[in-house]
């Protein structure tokens, strides 16, 4: 069994002002000053626990990339690897539905795919592919995965063997820079 630590990126500009999603590409959303501080504290906490050389995998989105790099600086020999499989779930037109107040719980069910976006099932498929690649690696180093709330939720669903029928009752908001330890 390998120790696996999921970390949601630090507070982002869009966590403070969601209207930024309409003026800035999702992948360009940056950390706030508080987000950088959260990442530093998260890295210090992980460094106290993990030793000197974890493997850190991260989403290519700016907020996750910056969080991972801040965390990595707390270790002597951390390795960093970007994976597009860890990117945020694409919401497509769902963003407009939510912002207009027309959302329903049906919009957040596992198989619902918004126009121009991804379902949770699509993100789950990416998470399973990523975790499969981790299982195939030849290392016993602890693993830190820096990603996004919804991607972490579906990855944990796979790791913890949660049935699709239980998805909505198990889904939760993961706090910025919250550390979730599991094994796989």
Explain the overall architecture:
With 184 residues, the chain is α/β, with parallel strands linked by helices. It has seven helices and five strands, in the order E-H-H-E-H-E-H-H-E-H-H-E. It has a five-stranded mixed β-sheet with strand order 3-2-4-1-5, with helices on both faces. Strand 2 (55-58), helix 3 (62-72) and strand 3 form a beta-alpha-beta unit. Helix 2 (33-50) packs across helix 3 (62-72) and helix 5 packs across helix 6 (149-159). The protein is globular. The mean pLDDT is 92.
Tags for this model:
five-stranded mixed β-sheet, 7 helices, 184 residues, globular, alpha/beta, single chain
Outline of this structure?
The chain has 184 residues and is an alpha/beta fold.
> What share of the residues does DSSP label as strand, in percent?
5-15%
Largest sheet strand order: 3-2-4-1-5
Query: SSE string, helix = H, strand = E?
Result: EHHEHEHHEHHE
Overall 3D geometry?
globular
> What percent of the residues sit in helical stretches (DSSP H or I)?
25-40%
Low-confidence stretches: none
How large, in whole angstroms, is the Cα Rg?
16 Å
Query: What is the helix tally?
Result: 7
Separation of the first and last Cα atoms: 5 Å
Overall pLDDT score: 92
Structural class call reads alpha/beta
Major β-sheet profile: 5 strands, mixed
Q: List how many beta strands DSSP finds.
A: 5
Give me the secondary-structure topology.
Elements: E1 3-8, H1 13-16, H2 33-50, E2 55-58, H3 62-72, E3 79-82, H4 94-99, H5 120-136, E4 143-147, H6 149-159, H7 167-170, E5 179-183
Parallel strand pairs: 1-4, 2-3, 2-4
Antiparallel strand pairs: 1-5
């Amino acid at each position: 069994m390998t120790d696996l630590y999921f970390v949601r990126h630090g507070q982002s500009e869009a966590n403070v002002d969601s209207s930024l999603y309409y003026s800035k590409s999702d992948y360009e959303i940056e950390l706030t000053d508080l987000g950088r501080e959260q990442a530093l504290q998260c890295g210090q906490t992980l460094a106290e626990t993990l030793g000197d050389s974890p493997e850190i995998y991260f989403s290519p989105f700016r907020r996750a990339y910056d969080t991972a790099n801040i965390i990595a600086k707390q270790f002597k020999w951390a390795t960093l690897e970007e994976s597009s499989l860890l990117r945020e779930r694409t919401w497509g037109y769902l963003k407009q539905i939510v912002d207009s107040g027309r959302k329903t719980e049906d919009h957040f069910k596992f198989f619902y795919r918004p126009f121009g976006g991804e379902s949770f099932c699509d993100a789950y498929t990416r998470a399973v592919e990523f975790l499969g690649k981790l299982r195939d690696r030849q290392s016993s180093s602890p693993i830190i995965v820096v990603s996004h709330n919804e991607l972490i939720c579906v990855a944990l669903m796979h790791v913890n063997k949660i049935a699709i029928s239980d998805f909505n009752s198990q889904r939760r908001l993961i706090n910025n820079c919250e550390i979730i330890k599991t094994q796989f």
